[in-house]
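During the no-cost extension, the postdoctoral fellow (Dr. R.K.) reprocessed legacy sequence entries with the updated structure-token encoder. One reprocessed record is reproduced below for audit purposes.
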Amino acid sequence: MYEFIIHLADGTDCRVFYNRFPEWKMTALSRLGKVPCPVCRKDFICKCMDKFSDDFDQQMRDGEWLSKAVESE
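Re-encoded structure tokens follow.
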């Protein structure tokens, strides 16, 4: 299992988990509670970022972050 911290332009941080086998697959996405959610403005745990999991996954793949994680082992 691999963990990535994503820093968004608005200051929001998200934690993303991936499994590598049999192929790369996002298993969890959560917002770190440092700032209110940019979608619902809640200051506690919410599931708003789940709506954007496909976008996060595509950006991780486009930026080749998954292959870079394997190279750094």
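The chain has a mean pLDDT of 91. The chain has two helices and three strands. The remaining legacy entries will be reprocessed before the final report is submitted.
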